[in-house]
Design brief:
This protein is of the alpha+beta class and 359 residues long. It has 10 helices and 11 strands. The protein has a 4-stranded antiparallel beta sheet with strand order 4-5-7-6, covered by helices on one side. Strands 1-2-3 form a 3-stranded antiparallel beta sheet. Strands 8-9 form a two-stranded antiparallel ribbon. Helix 2 crosses helix 9 (230-240). It is extended and about 65 Å long. The structure holds zinc ion (ZN). Residues 100, 102, 104-105, 145, 196 line the site of zinc ion.
Amino acid sequence: MSIVELEARIAGLAAEPRAAAERIYAVSTTTGTLVAPDEMRPWIEKLFGSVEAVTSQRIVRVTDRVTLEGALFNDLRAKRPMAVPEKSGAEVAETIRSTENDPFCHAETGTPADDFGRISGELGVTASNVAKYDGYHGVLVFNAHDPLAPMDAAAIADHLTTARKWADAAVERDPAAPYYFLMWNCLWRAGGSIVHGHMQMTTTHGMHYPKVERLRQAALAYGVRYRRDYFDDLWLVHDGLGLGVTIDGARIFARARRAGRARRGRTHDRRGHQPRPRSSSVGRGGRARPRALPAAARRRWRRLAALPGRRAVGRPRRPGEPNVRYRVNGALRGQRDLRRSLHGRRLVTAVHRPLNGHS
Ligand SMILES: [Zn+2]
């Protein structure tokens, strides 16, 4: 199956998965064309097989209507020449070997501990992250140095259990931060700055990290709108297209998230940067509470809300309400560049507009 067949494959699905696909995805296919000079023919044929392959190319665009994530696919782009060669398998293995005996190989002395101590599993031990991106930010250091060493289900279960115990200990210390996030990235392509195999855990307060929270809210809204579970529907589509597999009752499928990310030919070494939290997370339940506004913002909001005719964005005007637009420092909403600074003060003025001939 090629990605360019996606539209046709969805159209050929059974009724239920097809309906789910139509609820979740917007899929379209377009054609890109070009005119190649004769001088380029040998080069194009060498890289892409034939000139015909590039003069008319099929591009598939997929958008998840629920999460507004999207991807653009074109098989040809995988064949592009690379300006910067990637490391070969042997070079990666050599890099891994050459970093043996790093501080993670001696976690007890090479890494700091959390204030609640260390949590030990069969195959790993936790440490406190030196440069944290949240109040509690731990590292599960694997006993094995090589992050690409084969790992069976029991090893993964051991790591997840140890990480969860770490989270329990962190939440016991700080019950106001019950949102647990687990991240497992591996080597530089995934933003890892340390070669030695490890996972990272954080607990945070208020709500989940934005992408996780956005996914959670999108799934809830989907449930309200369609009376269907978003993740069940997601599964139906993937399973229907032959892109899912079930193992011991667990449903497994991959989600492509390519658009906007460099795929090849760039350096991916984010050394010195903390990897960003993304994708999977394990929630600990509880509802997200909006953060309290700072006092000044609360006062400003209350003042604005008290103005006659002031209404929330999207709320239609009620009969009898004045038809009014407010200008902040001389500018209408959205005209930020027209705002005149008034020595840091915000001046709100109102423009009343006539209603159907009445003023
Ligand atoms: Zn190591």
